[in-house]
């Protein structure tokens, strides 16, 4: 059965101190990141959540377009107003990735993370995350974390069928998107409050490594001319991927696309 999905039902499901306590919902918007950016400029508070049924201009990493039929997916963006320096903001993508994975685990899935921000079930992606930041040059004005989750999506284009999946395809039944959002907000709040204690992954490393698909697996780092292969040894406190090359040198990777053998890989 289809569950009601609107501002009221989402708000009623969320049980947090601040993450998602204020919910804005729209049947259609350009993108939830663009929408919440406008809300931020109008003074929206830390923890405000924007959710849309349909995005006309949704996009993912490397500006890949993100569209989904009505009722099938979660498209949302969380607004944060952190007090730490801008240099730490990029790590929040990983904090959110952990939250989505933990939410899927609570729903009964065997889930893992493909660094930096892909959530994987049965070696296929269920989620995309896009983080943006606004600053005045010195201090953060806002951080936006956009999240797209394939929930009740039953079909994918042919070119995506070996790379993408959804909760309904993996679990065999429909899921209440209100509940999924509530779980993500719960875990993000827990993870975020651990993160801001040190502005790094000191208190999150064990949890992250437990669900890291890349851990101790062969990886190919694709980053322009700087492409190489090695064994992933986890992440460090800054969220950088640690890749051990054949000569035993450990390289820290902070950007670029990482292709993982045995999982899907973009071309």
Automatic annotation (TrEMBL):
Alphabetized CDD domains for the sequence: BPL
Keyword terms: ATP-binding, Biotin, Ligase, Nucleotide-binding
Sample GO molecular function, one term: ATP binding
Gene3D superfamilies: 2.30.30.100, Bira Bifunctional Protein, Domain 2
Cross-referenced InterPro entries: aa-tRNA-synth_II/BPL/LPL (IPR045864), Biotin_CoA_COase_ligase (IPR004408), BPL_C (IPR003142), BPL_LPL_catalytic (IPR004143), Transcriptional_repressor_C (IPR008988)
Domain BPL/LPL catalytic: 7-196
Biological-process GO terms, alphabetical: protein lipoylation
Name of the protein this chain belongs to: biotin--[biotin carboxyl-carrier protein] ligase
Biological source species: Blautia wexlerae
Gene name per UniProt: birA_2
